[in-house]
Amino acid sequence: AVHPQRDKGNVMGKENRFFQLLKLAVGTGSAPETPLSAQEWIEVLELAEKQKLTGVLLGAAEVLPAASKPPRPLLMQWIGRTHQIERVNQAINKEAVRVSEFFARKGMRSMILKGQGVAQLYPHPLRRMPGDIDIWLEGSRKEIIRLARETDPKAEVVYHHVDMELSKVCEVEVHTTPSWMFNPLTNYRLQALCRQWKRNGFGQETTLEGTDGSVRVPEGEMNRVFLVLHAYRHLLSEGVGLRQLMDIFYVFRQETSPEERARTARQWRALQMTDFAAAVMWVLETIFGLERKYMPVSPSERKGRRLLEEIMRAGNFGQFDPRLSRERMQTDGGRFSTSLKRMWGFVHDYPQEVCWAPFFKIWHYGWRKMKN
Questions:
Q1: Rounded to an integer, what distance in angstroms lies between the CA atom of residue 88 and that of residue 283?
Q2: Could you identify which of 52, 185, 281, 344 might form a hypothetical disulfide with 299, taking C-beta atoms 3.0 to 4.6 angstroms apart as the criterion?
Q3: Is residue 234 within 8 Å of residue 240, measured between CB atoms?
Q4: Residue 368: which of 336, 328, 321, 327 has the closest Cα?
Q5: In the beta sheet, which residues pair with residue 161?
Q6: pTM flag (> 0.70)
Q7: Phi and psi at residue 176, in whole multiples of 5°?
Q8: Contact 111/96 with Cβ under 8 angstroms?
């Protein structure tokens, strides 16, 4: 491994080549002028795996001229890994349809959040690295928890979702609300916005690739707010990766009117997350080549650079963050102290959320104990 302080130029060169290939993969950039060496391809693929972008990055290799492609053995391994990702996605897509139909039989409409739904915006939906299934039910929290307990008596309830044994293919999080915020004022506004999304039709129907059944997914307005908020949550709690930022890129690459962009900006402002959204816009512009005409707010280079540093340091969901002790995260006390220590590092950038975190976490712990 190259030590950043000893050979910073080499490390940045590796990241820059990775970023250039990402732009090529999403259709906003051109091929590198100088072909990559075999070792450089290995380093780029290591970064892609760390950021869970191995499958989508293959699109860059496919459009390169023959002389610039990776060595054949490496390319064959890469293609094989991508086929594996596609097979897993097909299985999870079918499972998302099955779970949606399960709740429909119980009398509740549902909406697939993030992952399998937003993947439909990708040129090759099955190449997006899959995760678990997040499904939001239309009923009240009491109705959802009652249904969860009837289905799985051991279901674990937290503020915004219920963990249930519903699938042998992947984990399923059943949401009572899409997300939350530590600040009580902005959380109140967010939950009001979620109720508005329900009243506005509860998403739209779509067919996931490789399936015959349909599921409901968020419309563009909800995704523009929710996915940025979801990245905000992960940045403060454990870490955010480029996979989540690529999801946001494809959401904002969709054509919107000036009125729609202004509405998104107002919603961010009401949730006091304009600063974070501006950081996200800088990353989307710098790394993925998003044009400013798609942006509801102007990018912030200072906050954006800080966000990108965190992304590249920690990897997807902070899995490579040396500052997070996985052993300490196994206990309630360890999770509490570790997460607060991490969040405190962002207090100057996002004080409106960070300063409320200890109070929310203490309240949430008491709420769970009181509600059993």
A1: 29
A2: 281
A3: yes
A4: 336
A5: 175
A6: yes
A7: -85, -25
A8: no
